[in-house]
Amino acid sequence: MKKILTVLAMSFSALLSSNFATAAPQFDRDSADHPRHQAQNKREFRADAEERMQDKRRMREERGVKRLQQHKWQTGYVMPQHYRGNGYKVDYQEHNLPRPERKQQWYKINQDYILVDVENHQILRIAGL
User: Are 123 and 114 in contact (CB under 8 A)?
Assistant: First the structure.
């Protein structure tokens, strides 16, 4: 009886170990889990993410430009920093504008001439074309 139980226990353990051996994952060089494929997938994911970020940035810039082009200037408002550069400054004599007082500057934005206080960037006067 002892021999039969021993044989049964050994055959049962052999049966179990053979099932585990066949269930073990096999290494396949072409699988997506291969390090080369993982690196390629990461590069593709990064490229897609970079492209999405660039699209979002481009759309945001386009919305901002459209909004600034449609901006209605009013006296008393502060001129946005975007327009305070030298590219927008104009010489009052070349454009037949009144002479600005000390610490004032004329700017041409879209089709408007805007007189701005240089110290606090407040819009003092607006002259259209």
Answer: yes
> Same domain, yes or no, for 96 and 53?
no
- β partners of residue 114: 107, 126
Query: Rounded to whole angstroms, what are the CA distances from 129 to 48, 83, 99, 108, 113?
Result: 46, 18, 17, 10, 8
State the residue for tokens 């353990």: 13
Burial string for 60-69 (b: 16+ CB within 10 Å, else e) reads: eeeeeeeeee
SS3 category, 103: coil
User: What pLDDT tens digit does each residue of the chain (129 aa) get?
Assistant: 777 777 777 776 776 666 555 555 555 555 555 666 676 777 787 888 888 899 888 888 877 667 666 667 889 999 888 888 899 999 999 999 999 999 999 999 888 899 999 999 999 999 876
Domain that holds residue 103: 73-129
